[in-house]
Amino acid sequence: MSRSAQYLQEAADWLTRLQRSDVGEADWLAFDAWLEEPGAREAYDAVQAVDEEIFERGAVLRGALTEPRRVVGKRPFSVDWRWLSGLGATAAAAAIALTLAPWGELLPQPDTLYSTAKGESRAIQLADGSRIDLNTDSNLSVRLEDDARRVTIHDGQALFDVAHDERRPFVITVGDETVRVLGTKFDVRRRDGRLAVTVLRGSVEVSTEGEGKAVRLRPGQMLEHVDGAGAPVVRVVSTEDQVSWRSGRLVYRDQTLGRIVSDLNHYFERPLRLESASTANLRFSGVLIVDGQDAMVRRLTSLMPISATPTDDSILLRERPSTAK
Amino acid sequence: MSDTHSDKVALLRLYEEKRANLVRVFAARLNSRAEAEDLVQDLFIRISGLEILEPIDNPSALLHRIGSNLMLDRLRSQKRSGARDTDWRDVNTTVLAGQEVADQPPADDVVNSRQRLQALVKAVEDLPEKTQQAFRLHKLEGLSHAETARRMNISVSTVEKHISSALKTLTRRLR
Q: Out of A22, A207, A256, B6, which could bridge A214 as a Cys pair, Cβ 3.0 to 4.6 Å?
């Protein structure tokens, strides 16, 4: 075996070992050592890329390998096939891939409303393959039509990972704004009359009703718009920060306490209140772990010059008198 | 204590040093380099927000444990969403090369993609019989190594040898 063929074999052995269900730290350390050998990384990356391709195209490959057994007139579930028509040569392969997989239960009803309570979050898998992660205290509705996939965000925040389907654009309506996408990953936040759209992958078009020009967003960009205000503002942000809520963290860079309190009030029933406008304008940078309300308030009071006083129905935050700093 | 601070610095440094290899580790089971990148980002957020109360004896074990948990979360949600629900979408994407969004493939890529699928089919068909059977049961029917071994009435390590040999051959032919 030539040297490069030998590396490919070792790389394939490693990939297979790392795919064991009981793979552990010892495997990881040994793999790490193997990667130090010259040519190892390149060989592994090549094998992994092919393995990923096989995974991605598994059903199509399976359909092409088995006898072309067309399951017609005996579908395990009902799918609207109209949008599949006219796909051309590989439509048959796609049809086979579809028929073999029992995704029937996943098809949502028209205009399904999804919502989360305070402190709750949920993952929604749509029948078209798109995924929506819904943050706390949010609600949106989904309607999958023949020519479009429509989502209306009534309130809250959601991360979308949209399956590419050119025939059925994914259109999100938020207030008087429309977000139009074809296949991409992005976060939409709608709170208190403010819209923020952050793109992680692909591109997204945002248009305002009555205005001709749409804004095209690229990965790493965030668009913000306040209801009734003028043109939206686009800036470059850390997308990691914007979607940190998914891992139970809120990341702030020079953010006002007012905004932080408004965020936290979507997690907990008992509202936080701010004593004054100057308290609301205090700034904070850092990571807040979302756990219990008392613990979060305690952390805030240790990180910022504020004190917390419980009242009957809320928790009042006030600025600590600025003694010697 | 400042010890915990230096422990955290050491943990973050280890992360930086091992980042690329971690992506490789997680890409294996997630079957997606992009998702492994996402995971490693999550891992960074997780460890940088970590409140370190006790000295970290073994930062490598900690990194591995947190990473493994994140990976299992992702595997669970992949399973929920139907592991292979992406492929028919890919067909649509490549066939219907469009014009509206920048991430769509030009027409050349559509042809290339179809040719590549044919090459892949041919390469699988050319695999030795047992190797092909193990490959198809595991990679295409989604059976685990152990399930494949039971089905073929051979040992798990033989299954792994077949699968690994198939991967090597396919990579050599397709790269």
A: A207
Alpha helices in A209-314, H assignment, sequence order: 239-242, 257-264, 277-280, 293-303
Identify the three-state secondary structure at position A102.
coil
Domain A248-319 CATH class label: alpha beta
Binned at pLDDT 50, 70 and 90, residue B83 comes out as very low
Note whether A25 contacts B41, CB cutoff 8 Å: no
Say how far apart CA B26 and CA B12 lie, in whole Å.
18
pTM of the model: 0.47
**Residue A289, H or E segment:** strand A283-289
**pLDDT for A104:** 34
Bridge partners, A250 (sequence order): A288
Class of domain B109-174: mainly alpha
- C-alpha dist (Å) from residue B25 to A11, A321, B35, B63: 12, 52, 12, 12
Taking an 8 Å cut-off on Cβ atoms, the answer to whether A12 and B32 are in contact is no
In sign, the C-alpha dihedral spanning B140, A54, A60, B85 is positive
Angle between helices B145-152 and B156-174 (to 10 degrees): 110
Domain positions in chain A: 3-56, 59-105, 108-240, 248-319
Residue A303 near chain B (CB below 8 Å): no
Say whether A123 and B104 touch across the interface (CB within 8 A).
no
**A151-205 per-position pLDDT tens digit:** 888 889 999 988 887 788 888 888 778 888 866 888 999 888 888 899 888 888 8
The residue that leads in pLDDT, A191 or A96, is A191
Looking at CATH, the fold of the domain delimited by A108-240 is given as Jelly Rolls (2.60.120)
Length of chain B as a residue count: 175
